[in-house]
Design a protein that fits this description.
1 helix; mainly beta
């Protein structure tokens, strides 16, 4: 028997095949929620405990530029789930995937990944994770009213709450970024134009440590190493 009630591998994909990193969202039989991915900086995982306490864990890659390495984890308390019947939800994580910074795929699709269609050029796909005290049918009704939100998955938890994963498309202001590599690595250029025609093979996420009752807010972009 699996230890997970939900075990979803997902990513964002453009019509030309360019993709995001692959993320894994899972819920344990105890009611905890895990969100994890791998990037240029190593493996990154966020754990949302059923008690409301949350923590991050990072196993940094030594070859990554210093500005992208973050081995220090952090802890915080997520917002409380609104009571049943309120129609509300507590957002715990939010990831933005700008369409023009997706990457040429490097591995074959094994058919087990749930692909979310990317926003049009110049936009971004947003994937959000929230806790609600409502059953799935009520959640679907709220999202139908909002119209611009698409339900990805609901996962019923042992404590009666529901983990909700949904996505939507919205505008995005492209801003290229060059991260210095320091003395041990090349610089990394995150560019919408991809001037090196590299396919942006290096993917990374950016985002601050959340404070208590805040959600994890992440930006994922693809870039390429620039030889100094």
């Amino acid at each position: 028997m699996s230890n997970f009630l939900l075990d979803l591998s997902f990513g964002v994909k453009r019509s030309d095949g360019y993709v995001s990193d692959i993320w894994r969202a899972s819920t344990t039989r105890l009611g905890d929620f895990h969100l994890a991915t791998s990037s240029i900086a190593g493996t990154e995982e966020y754990r949302f405990n059923k008690s409301g306490m949350c923590r991050s864990a990072h196993s940094g890659a030594d070859a990554a530029p210093e500005a992208l390495r973050d081995r220090a984890g952090f802890r915080w308390r997520r917002a409380a789930t609104p009571p049943r019947g309120s129609g509300g939800a507590a957002r715990v994580a939010w990831i933005a995937f700008p369409t023009d910074y997706l990457s040429r795929p490097t591995v074959a699709d094994d058919g087990e990944i749930f692909w979310i269609a990317a926003a049009p050029e110049g936009g971004a796909t947003y994937v959000e994770f929230a806790y609600a005290a409502e059953p799935e049918e009520n959640i679907r009704g709220v999202l139908d009213i909002m119209q611009d939100r698409t339900l990805v998955r609901c996962a019923a938890l042992p404590n009666g709450e529901t983990l909700v994963i949904f996505c939507y498309h919205a505008d995005w202001d492209n801003k290229d970024l060059r991260v210095p590599g320091g003395s041990i690595a090349d610089d990394v250029l995150f560019s919408a134009d991809d001037p090196l025609a590299s396919g942006r093979p290096l993917r990374h996420r950016f985002g601050p440590a959340p404070k208590d009752e805040e959600a994890v807010m992440l930006l994922e972009m693809g870039g390429a190493a620039i030889t100094n």
